[in-house]
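User: Predict the structure for this protein chain, please.
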Amino acid sequence: MNEPQSHPCVIVGLGSGARLDYVARRVRVGDPVELDLAPTRYDPLTVAAYHQDHLIGYVAPGWRWVAHSLEQGIRYAVTVTGFEYDTRDELSRIAIGITVLPDEPVEEPGRMAAPVGRPPSPPAPGTAPWAPLIIHAPRPRWPIAIPLALLAAGLAAGAWLLMERGLLPQLGRFAGGP
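Assistant: Here is the predicted structure, written as C-alpha cells:
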C-alpha cells in the first residue's frame, strides 16, 4: 500500500513579541500544527498556522497550492520538522511537513462505501493551473529608438557648432550657406 507523501513547507511571520516568545517556549519538533485560510485585504490566499489554538505564523506565500487545496477541502496532517534561524541567530521560520491524508470512504444509504480518489500531489513550482500565466512578448522598439534619436540630435548639434565656428565649411555649402 502507498504511504502518504509529505511535502516540506515553512511558516513565516513569527513576529518579535508574544508570538515569537510562544513559539520559542512551546513549539517542539513533532508537534501538530493546524492550517486554516485567513484571507486579508492584501492576500486572499493567506494560510494561518495554529499550534494548540495559538496563531504562530503564516504559510510562506510561495506555497499557494496549500491555500487552493484547503479551499477544495483536502485534509492534511501537519507537523513541525525543524526551526530556521537568521544571521543574528534569531528564530525566523518554522519548517513543517504537510502530509496529504487519504479521503475517507463516502457512504450513501443503500450503497457500499467507495473510496474517493486520492488528491493529486502538489504541482511543481510555477506549473499549477492557478499560477500566473507569463507571456513573453516582443521587446518594444522605443528603448532603442530614444537613444538613437538622442545620438542623432547630438551629432546634428555638434555639426552645427562646428559650422558656426568655420571648422566645417564644406558642410555649410551643402546646407545652403555662403
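The CA atoms of residues 8 and 97 lie 5 Å apart.
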